[in-house]
Amino acid sequence: MNAVLKRLASVDALRGCTVALMLLVNDPGDWAHVYWPLEHAEWNGCTPTDLVFPFFLFVVGVSIALANGPRMEQGADRSALARAALKRAARILLLGVAINVLAWLIMPGAHLRFPGVLQRIGVCFAGAALFAIYTKPRVQWATIAVLLLGYWGLLLAGGTLEPFANIVSRTDFAIFGHTVYLIDPVTGRGHDPEGLLGCLPSLATGLLGLRAGQWLREENMKALTFSGIVWLLLGFAWSLVLPLNKNLWTSSFVLWTAGWATIALVVFHMLIDQRGWPAIGRRFGVNAVAAYAGSELMQILLPGLHIQNPLYQHVFASWLTPLAGPYVASLAFAVVFVAVWWVIVYVMDRRKIYLKL
């Protein structure tokens, strides 16, 4: 069995392309004018934008398999690996909370929010790492099945999947109160797309990435390709009775997005690692946390310091809107935002600066 021991440029590239897409969809010039593929589904459904976060969590699992697999085979201390993973997860989570607190302090009209993207990444990273360190593949597969089927049962037990009224929203609101992402002005109920209960199926996304990463280490492309097709078919079939829904991270959504992520991993590996294509996105991938967290800080500071709207209006909207329409102007701002961060991570990579939490 030919195990992959070196760092794979394809994984860095896939992670980096995912981060670049995160920045693109998070930073339009005008939220009122965004092309539909760059928006999340309003509730049920799955747009290309809805693939971005699960892709990242999937790659988290892949990266854990590539990093920990060789160490485990070389007899590394499991307790030391676990402590390192938990410390890193805690730093990621606390960074997410710190960014949310800063937004609350600086941005006009912002309210304090405790859940968030980095917080969920931290929780899922810790869970997937511990499973990689302490369990065998059959336990991981069993856990994936229990998480997906159990979460489905939990959603059914909640009685409805409607916004704010479902059991996920109710549970998160009971735990976090008004520090969730959205509050319904009519009912006073809250909802957070990155709440606590949704970490259960999100962990399944990370574990599917973990298993895919092991197949990648073994260069078992048949298993990897076959599994991607199977996840897509199962996710589609399950969506007929349990809708695809990123806000709730439904079990069908887990399989559907993991299927696309697996296929993307196969394509990136074949083109970049095997055929030598350029690793587009790699520079974002090797500084993923720096790019995402830094862009979040920029998202806070630009409007918080009352810079963003004048910048957008004078540099983009004033001439692009009459020429090509408001959607093009809004997209142009997002593209330039990504380009600015590409320059930043390019310089960091050239100077061998890699920020690791």
Please describe what this structure looks like.
The protein is mainly α and 357 residues long. The protein has one domain. The chain is 68% helix and 1% strand. The chain is built from 13 helices and two strands. A two-stranded antiparallel ribbon has the order 1-2. The longest helix is centred in the N-terminal third of the chain and has 29 residues, at 78-106. The two termini are 33 Å apart.
> Structural class, please?
mainly alpha
How many helices? The count is: 13
Q: How would you describe the shape?
A: globular
**Termini Cα gap:** 33 Å
Kindly state the number of beta strands: 2
Order of helices and strands: HHHHHHEEHHHHHHH
What does the radius of gyration come to?
Answer: 20 Å
Task: List segments where confidence is low: pLDDT < 50 over at least 5 consecutive residues.
Answer: 1-5
Helix content: 55-70%
Oligomeric grouping of the chains: single chain
Strand order of the largest sheet: 1-2
Beta strand %: under 5%
Number of domains as seen in the coordinates: 1
Largest sheet: 2 strands, antiparallel
Look at the structure and give the mean pLDDT.
Answer: 94
